[in-house]
Design brief:
Layout (H helix, E strand, L loop, with lengths): L1 E7 L5 E8 L3 E8 L2 E3 L2 H10 L8 H14 L3 E3 L3 H11 L2
Antiparallel strand pairs: 1-2, 2-3, 4-5
EC number: 6.3.1.20
InterPro entries: Lipoate_protein_ligase_C (IPR019491)
Keywords: ATP-binding, Ligase, Nucleotide-binding
């Protein structure tokens, strides 16, 4: 199944998530008008979602995103881990 969601998050930016999944996430693409620095952190976040169960909680997804952001000393501008996790979770419904 392929699903996509576009949402304006509480930080004010638009986020679009497209996910291909069955029982687990097979492919995910995250885009929007937010900023991540360094930019390759977004690729790492997407890679970390591959294999995650489609029923993963917002807290689990946010924790993974936060861990990657911290490990790479990333700045998330216009979006936070919880907001991104919420859009991902919504897409998987």
């Amino acid at each position: 199944m392929i699903a996509s969601t576009s949402q304006k998050v509480k930080e004010g930016k638009l986020v679009k998530v497209e996910v291909e999944y069955d029982g687990i996430i097979r492919r995910i693409k995250i885009t929007g008008d937010f900023f991540l620095h360094p930019e390759d952190v977004l690729d790492r976040i997407e890679e970390s979602m591959i294999g995650l169960g489609k029923d993963a909680s917002i807290d689990t997804i946010a924790s993974i995103i936060q861990g990657i952001a911290q490990a790479h000393d990333a700045q998330m501008i216009g979006i936070g881990p919880e907001s991104l996790a919420s859009v991902i979770r919504e897409t998987l419904k």
